## 1
Amino acid sequence: MSELRGNPWPRRVGGLVLVLVALALPLALSDFWLQTGLFVMAAAIGAVGLTLLVGVAGQLSLGHAAFAAIGAYVYAWSTGEATSTVGGAGLPPLAGLVLAAVVSALVGAAFSPVAGRLRGIYLGLATLGLVFVVRHLLVNLDQWTGGFTGRSVESFALGGFSFSNSDPDYLAVAGVEFEGLHRLWYLFLVLALAACWLAGNLRSGRTGRAWANVRDSETAAAAMGIGVARAKASVFVVSSAYAGVAGAMLALAYGRVAPDVFSLTASVDFLVMIVLGGLGSVGGAVVGALFVTALPLVLAEYSGSLPFLAAPGSGGLDPSTASRIVYGLAIIAVLLFLRGGLAGAARRLRHGSAPGAPPSAPGPTPHDPLSTHDVGRPAGGPARSKETTP
Amino acid sequence: MTYFLAQVLNGLSYGLVLSLIAAGFAIVFTSTGVLNFAHGSVVLLGAYLVAVLHPTLGFWPSLLVGMAGSALVGVAINALLVRHLADQNAGTAAILMLGVDIVLLTELTRRIGNQVLTLGAPWGASVVRFGDVSLPTGRVVAAGVTVVAFAGLWYLFARTDLGVGMRAAAADGPTASLMGIRLTRTAATGWALAGVLAAVAGVFLTSFPAPGVAPTVALSAFAAIPAWVLGGFDSVPGAVVGGLVIGLTSALVTGYEGDLERFVGTGFGEVAPYVVMIVVLLVRPSGLLGSKEAVRV
C-alpha cells in the first residue's frame, strides 16, 4: 500500500508526536481534563467501531449504544462481587473486559440475521428498536443490572496493580502523584491505540475491501466471490466488540453504570462523531469523538467565565442549552460545508486541491454508504452527477 | 369486556394521531428522500405555537398559525439546509435532521422551561360516553379530523395535478422533471404538508388526556417511527395501518400491564412498538404496504 499512499513518513512522525503528547499529558492536566480525556478515549473506540460498520461496510446502525450498554453491564456484572441486591461473578477485571467484548460481539452476531435481511435506512431503524429493547432489559433484569439506578463498577486491576486511588496507595512520576485517573489514562490510551491500529489494518486489508465492496454493491461483491452475508455478519461482530470495549471503558470512567448513559442520545452521538469526522475514517472518528464528548463538558466547566452564558435555572442561555445548540449547529455546518467531514477536509488540504474535486482516497473511500437515494430531490435526481465514485 | 373495549378505542384513536405523524414521515421521505428526525420537534413546534398564541388570538386562529408555522419551518429546512448538503445522500440527510432536531428541540425546551402550557382547546377535558365506554372528546375529535385529513390526502394524490405530480416526482424524478413537473415545488409541498399534519397531531397529542405542551411530546412523536416503518417507507395508507397497529399494541400492552408484567417486565408499553416493528421488518423487509426496493445491477 505504501507506494499508493505516497510518502508515509510525515504521517508516521505526526502520529508519533501525538502519542508522545498523549503520554505526557497526565503530568500537566487537572482532574477535570483527565476525566474528559477518559470519556473521549472510550467514545473514540466506540466511534471507530461504528465507522467500520457504517462508513466502511455501509450498514447504518442507530443501535451502537445498545452494544456499548451490553459491554458495560457485562463488565460490571462479571467483575462485581455478589451482594444482596445485585449478582456478580467476581472475575478478574481483565477477564471482565475480554468478556465484555466477546458478549457484545456475540449479540452482534445474533443480530446479523436481521442485518442480512434489511438494508440502509430500514436496518438503521431496526437497530433503533434494539436500543429500546436493551434499555427495557436493563431496567427490568434488576438482579443483574441494578435496575433504574444501575450498579457500581469495580475498578480495573492487573496483576495486583490497581487502576484506582489505592493499591499502591502512593505512586508518583516526575513529582506528580498518579491517582486513579492518571492510571486509567494510560490503560485507555493503550486500548485506544490498539483499537485504531487494528481498525486501520482491517479497513485497508482484505476484510475491509470486502466490506467496502458489499457497501458499494452487494451484487457485485457476490459476483466477485465475497460471501455477502458473512461479510455483513463479520462487520457487525467487529463493530459490536468495539462497542462492548467502549462500554466497559465508559463504565470504568464513570465508576458506575446506569441505563440512561446508553440511551438513544448516546447512539445518535456515536453516529454524529463518525459523520463529523468523515465516514469510514479512523482518525476522523477519533476527532469526532473528541469534539462530541468534550464540547458539553468543557462548556459546562467554563460557563462561569463565558460572558454570554447565564447560570442554570435563571431562564437565560444556560451552559447545557448552549452546548446543545452549538452541537446541533456544528453538525449542520459540517454537513453543509465540509464534504466527507473533517477527514475529507483534511485530505483536500493535504492534496491541495479545490474543495469541489476531492482526489480519490487511498483504500476504501468513505462515500454514500447508506442508500441509492439522492436527497433534496426525488430519487435519481441530478445530484447524482456530483458523486465522486473512484 | 368493557375494559377491553375501552383499551381498543383508546388505542385506535391514539393510533390515528400517530398515523398523522407517520404520514408526515412518509410524505417527506417520498418527496425528498429524507429521513426526517426533526419531525418530532416540528410536532412540538406546532403545539407550542398554539399554546402561546391562543390567549390572544383564540384557539382556531392560533391553530391556523401553528399549522402555517410548522409548514413554513419544514419548507425552510428543505430549501435552506437539505438542498445544500455537501454530500447528497440519505445518511448525511438523516444526520442533518438530527442536528436540526437538536437545535429546534433545545430552543423549544428552553422557551417552555418547566411550565406545562395549556392549549385552550374548545373540547377541554370533557368525555364522550359510548354505552359503558368513555373516551376523551379530544380523542374523538382527533379520530374525526384524522379521517378527514386522510380523505383530503387521498383526494390530493389521486385527483389533483399537484398530487399526481408529487407521485410522479417520487416515482421517477428526472422523467417527471422532463415532463414539466417542478421538483422544487413538489418537494416544498411535501414538507409543507408534513408540517401541517405535524401541527394537527401536536395539538391532539398535547390536549386532554395529556397534561399540556411539554418537551416530552417530541419524544412521544418518536413512537410514530415504528408506525411509519411498519406501514412501509413510501406509503401513506401504510402510515394509517401502521399507526393503528402501533396504537392498539401500545394501548393493550399498557392497559394489561399488570397481567403481562410477569413475562415482559414493567414499562413494556414503550418497547412493544419497536418489537412489533422488528418482527414485521423481518417478515416483510419493506414494511406492510411499502413498495419493494428495486435492485439495479
## 2
Amino acid sequence: MIDIAVLLMLAFTAIAISRLRNLFAAVMLAGLYSLLSACWMTALDAVDVAFTEAAVGAGVSTVLMLITLAVTARREKVAKFSLPAFFVVLVTGGFLIYGTLDMPDWGDPEAPVHQHVAPRYLNDSYAEIGVPNVVTSVLASYRGYDTLGETVVIFTAGLGVMLLLRWRKEEKGS
Amino acid sequence: MRHHSILRAVTKFFLPYILLFGLYTQFHGDYGPGGGFQAGVIFAAAIVLYGLIFTPRIARKVIPYRAVYIFMSLGILLYAGVGVATLFMGGNYLDYNALNHHHPVHGQHLGILLVELGVGITVAAVVICIYYAFADRLES
C-alpha cells in the first residue's frame, strides 16, 4: 500500500518536473523526488541507499543546482517538438521496458543475485568480519578494492570540478 | 541572507547536531545503516548549510581551500595506506586479517574503521570543495 502510494507520487513528480518551465520549481521538485525515492528505498529495507539518496540527492545536489540556476537562467527555453528525438526516446523506453520483462520477481529467493555469493556473505560474514551490518562488511572488507576505486572516482570528480572552475581564479590571484 | 534572523538562529542551533550526526554515522556504520560515504556527505552538508546562511566567504574561513585540498588527498592516502600496512604485516593488499594476527576479527574491525574514515574524509572534502567551486562562481 505504502509502496504503491510512494511510487504514484514519484511518477506524478517526474511528470510535473518534465512539464514545468520554471527551472527553480523544477529543481525543488527534483529534491522532492529524491526524498520520495529515499522513502521508497526505506520501504524496500535498503536503508543505506535511502540514507545516501536523502543526503546527496535531496540535500547537496539540490543546493548545487540552485547555485547553477542563480548563475545561469531561471526559465527553460521552449524547445520545438522534434520527431527523431521523440522516436529515439520511444525506442529507448521500449527497450528498457522489454529488458525488465525477464527480470526475476522482487524478493524471489531463486533470483540469480541470491544464489551466487549472497548466501555466503549473509551466513559467514559475522564470524569472519565481526560486523553486524553486512552492507558495511561487504563494502569495506570483501569488496575493499571496489570501494577504494570508488573513493578515487570521487576524488577525481572533485579534482575535475576544481580544475574546470577554479583555474582562472588561481591565475588571477597569483 | 543577512536579514533572515530566524534562519540564522536555527542554523546555529542545528549545526552542532548535524556535525555530531555525521560523526555518529561515520563511527556507527558497522552496527547500523550508514558508513563513510553517508557520513562524509552529512558532514559536508552541515558546512554547505553554514555557507548558504552565512555566505560562502565566512564558511571558507572555517574550512579554507587549503584544508579541503589536504583532506581530499588524506582520505585516499589513509585508505591506500591501510592496504600497504596489511602488505607489510604479511597479508594481501587490504586483507585486514593481517592487522591483528591473534584475533583476525579485531583486525577486520580496525581495518574497516580506518578505511571508512578514509572514505568519509575524502567524500566530505570533495563535496565541500565542489560547493566552494560553485559558490565562487556565484560571487564573481
